[in-house]
């Protein structure tokens, strides 16, 4: 939120990891000099190989395999956008700085309550939808999409050189070839026909059409922001027009530096100490409940009700609500909570 308040940009180029992204590579350096570039984490490896560090990289998937897309890479002039729910390794990524966005996990809400809301980038089913939202909230009047194919041009799933394609290559064998692995991704959902911006037929599926519907609905709801595609091979999305790269290159250069004016960086060391203290108190209450149940399982209703009240009134009430599964045997309720919540705090 602080970044969006203090930084406004005219135009953005959003880079997905679709096969058509290859058409942009010869112009990527020049586009970087004229527009703000934001890429999804899957496309980062291929973009860096073409000698360009994007202004922003976005990763929202909390799973380990999503972190693998940026593991071992670095982009020291880029800002990385992520929620707190991502794999911890994401925050060891070498970059210029981090921008946090909101998510639904209770621990994220704890920090937002302490230092202010991070900012909601919405949920459109794909990280590209969050990238589009970030560009729009940054004040972009025009957003240009590249590599957001939402289909499988020439029966390919990802741009060559992307981390996803590199993973397929590393797993391929004579028995399980690259084409076999790729076809598994293409046909794992119900295949459906669609057309690209040249009127040619392309293969897509029900998942991709859901993502396309999200873009269509958001574009209709935000008429102040115009969205274009730079790739004719992409599936046609109502409301998204084709724009030639040549017309984009006519724009004057912008500043080569992306500032991080946030109105004053917040020191979260105090909040971290408060978090550790509050969480240890939470664990102490759960351990106390377990001890009471083991010592005297009968006649503890009043004491356990007091502990329950303390748990549900703690800053982690959402976490308690999700982990509190009431059972006939009270000790099992607290043992299950202990198993779920008792972690080492650094």
| Overall pLDDT confidence | 83
Low-confidence stretches: none
Head-to-tail CA distance between termini: 28 Å
**What would you call the structural class?**
alpha/beta
Query: What can be said about the biggest beta sheet?
Result: 8 strands, parallel
Quickly count the helices: 14
Strand order of the largest sheet: 5-4-3-2-1-6-9-10
Order of helices and strands: HEHEHEHEEHHEHHEEHEEHHHHH
> Percent of residues in helical segments?
40-55%
Rg from C-alpha positions? Answer: 24 Å
Overall number of strands? 10
Q: What fraction strand?
A: 5-15%
Task: Work out the oligomeric state of the chains in this entry.
Answer: single chain
Shape: elongated
Quick description:
By secondary structure, the protein is α/β, with parallel strands linked by helices.
Descriptive tags:
346 residues; alpha/beta; 8-stranded parallel β-sheet; two-stranded antiparallel ribbon; 10 strands; 14% strand; elongated
Give the arrangement of secondary structure elements:
Elements: H1 2-6, E1 11-15, H2 28-34, E2 36-40, H3 44-49, E3 56-58, H4 64-68, E4 74-82, E5 94-100, H5 106-115, H6 127-137, E6 142-146, H7 163-171, H8 178-186, E7 191-195, E8 201-205, H9 206-221, E9 226-229, E10 241-242, H10 245-248, H11 269-295, H12 301-312, H13 317-323, H14 330-341
Parallel strand pairs: 1-2, 1-6, 2-3, 3-4, 4-5, 6-9, 9-10
Antiparallel strand pairs: 7-8
């Amino acid at each position: 939120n602080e970044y969006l308040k203090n930084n406004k940009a005219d135009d953005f180029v959003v880079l997905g990891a679709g096969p058509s992204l290859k058409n942009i590579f010869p112009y990527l350096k020049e586009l970087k000099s004229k527009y703000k570039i934001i890429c999804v984490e899957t496309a980062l490896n291929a973009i860096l190989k073409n000698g360009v560090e994007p202004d922003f990289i976005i990763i929202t998937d909390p799973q380990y395999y999503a972190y693998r897309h940026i593991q071992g890479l670095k982009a020291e002039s880029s800002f990385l956008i992520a929620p707190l729910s991502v794999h911890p390794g994401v925050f060891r990524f070498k970059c210029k700085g981090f921008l946090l966005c909101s998510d639904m996990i209770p621990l994220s809400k704890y920090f937002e309550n302490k230092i202010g809301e991070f900012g909601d980038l919405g949920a459109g089913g794909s990280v590209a939808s969050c990238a589009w939202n970030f560009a729009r909230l940054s004040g972009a009047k025009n957003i240009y999409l590249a590599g957001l194919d939402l289909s499988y041009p020439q029966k390919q799933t990802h741009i060559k050189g992307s981390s996803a394609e590199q993973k397929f290559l590393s797993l391929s064998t004579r028995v399980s070839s690259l084409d076999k692995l790729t076809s598994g991704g293409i046909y794992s959902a119900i295949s459906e026909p669609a057309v690209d911006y040249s009127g040619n037929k392309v293969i897509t599926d029900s998942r991709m059409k859901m993502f396309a519907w999200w873009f269509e609905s958001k574009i209709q709801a935000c008429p102040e922001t115009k969205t274009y595609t730079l790739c004719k091979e992409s599936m046609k999305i109502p409301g998204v027009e084709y724009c030639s790269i040549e017309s984009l290159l006519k724009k004057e250069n912008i500043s080569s530096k992306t500032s991080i004016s946030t109105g004053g960086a917040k020191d979260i060391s105090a909040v971290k100490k408060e978090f550790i203290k509050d969480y240890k108190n939470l664990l102490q209450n759960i351990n106390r409940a377990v001890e009471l149940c083991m010592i005297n399982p009968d006649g503890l209703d009043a004491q356990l009700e007091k502990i329950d009240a303390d748990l549900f009134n703690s800053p982690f009430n959402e976490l308690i609500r999700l982990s509190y599964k009431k059972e006939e045997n009270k000790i099992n309720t607290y043992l299950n909570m202990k198993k779920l919540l008792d972690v080492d705090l650094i």
